[in-house]
Amino acid sequence: AGLIFISGGMNIAWSNGFRGPIYYTTTSHNFVAWFIGGIIGALISCALTNKVAKKFVLLFASLLVTIGGLVIACTKNNGSATVAGCYLDGIANGLVFAPFVALAGEVSVPYKRGSVATNMEQLCYGIGILLQIIYASTWSYGSYYYTSFSPEMLKGILSTVYGVLGLALGYFMTIESPVLMLVNNDEQGAIDALRRLQKPHTLTEETYDQLAEHKRYIAMNKEMSLGESISQAIPSFIRLALLRALNAMSISLYVSYCLTFSILISYGLGGSKGWYVAFAFCRWLGNCIPSFWADSLGRKKPILLGLLVAGGLAFAIGSQYKLYKYLDGVTVMILIFEFFAGMAFTGTSAYLSEAYPLGVKQHFIAFTFIVEMLVFLIIGVIDFNLYSAGSDYFYAVGALYLVGFIMGVLTLPETKWLTLRGAQERFSRFLNTRF
């Protein structure tokens, strides 16, 4: 699934303005097609919940990524083919997001769940964004129209490679959820899955301890009716949907436009490549560092630190985003903003894998993903005035980040080292002030 998310990250960056010159007629639909596809895939995944094995979902999604990559790789300056490829890749990402974020929580031991979930989702999306920005910004465009190869075609080739690798690895290495096997009364299958997740692959006392904990987790959720599960999930959904919406605002089309504008005004066209690469690495490092701390520092502290610093920087960017000030320092502040924004939202992967009750888990993970895609989509179709709206956008981002910070201090639980049962119990309480 991580390979599909890398392809998705490349498409998110491409859709949000990190791309080369376009030599075909486009509308906003060309650049929001991936997000629409993601929404479609997420809705389909809701209908497939616990009906189709995750292995088959992954294989089908990998096939979609492969086909979408081939469509883009085999064409040049073809808007219709690009839209088709974006739809296929977006649908694939939407299909695997909910089931595999849920799976990451169910196959991990409590002391590794945070790193497993964040490395699979946010870090892989970050790698895709990094790759797309690096090659798109460093490409030589002098004879772009006359050469037979373009950056879009390279994106298609890379997506094809990720899709083929996803097919191979998914076929041989996918392990189904031991939790769902127990729900379906397949205890022997659950034991075998837990055994395969261990190194060495032998039955140990820890295997049976995990099995017993999964049974307690299932028993707790079986006591809840559908209505009770939904009512417990809604407060968690509000918290996590807000965080994922703020994540979309940090890497949106308008941020890329403001970055480009600030580079051109402050440094000119000649030095733009280095600034784009630095932007990409700042975002990736912001994802990378907390992903390895998720089970030591936890989820809550990096999220709050990122929100607080990024919110303050957003206000600073808004105050300096003035032509008469020549956007003094804006480029550097956007880079630092991206680092702390990446830090702020990496932990949401772990939260998504453990927050929702079992009976509605995949549905609410999918709904959270849909909210994030809708924010990308809305920003992508709004016609902003780059000269006057830049400061307003960052003032709004700063205000929302501070709202998110206050909400996080009061309501986000710290769930490191907790079992799924313990994490769900903490999320069931709306007020969580402990760190």
Question: What's the arrangement of secondary structure elements?
Answer:
Elements: H1 2-15, H2 28-48, H3 54-73, H4 79-107, H5 113-120, H6 122-138, H7 151-173, H8 178-183, H9 187-197, H10 205-222, H11 226-250, H12 253-267, H13 272-291, H14 300-320, H15 330-346, H16 348-354, H17 361-381, H18 389-411, H19 420-427
| Biggest pleated-sheet summary | none
Number of strands: 0
DSSP helix fraction: over 70%
Please, how many helices? Answer: 19
- Any idea what the radius of gyration is? 22 Å
Task: Identify the overall geometry.
Answer: globular
Oligomer: single chain
Description:
- The structure is a single chain.
- With 435 residues, the protein is mainly alpha-helical.
- 74% of the residues lie in helices and 0% in strands.
- It has helices at residues 2-15, 28-48, 54-73, 79-107, 113-120, 122-138, 151-173, 178-183, 187-197, 205-222, 226-250, 253-267, 272-291, 300-320, 330-346, 348-354, 361-381, 389-411, 420-427.
- It is globular.
- The model has no long low-confidence stretch (mean pLDDT 88).
Structure in a nutshell:
It contains 19 helices and no strands. By secondary structure, it is mainly α.
List keywords for this structure.
435 residues; mainly alpha; 19 helices; 0% strand
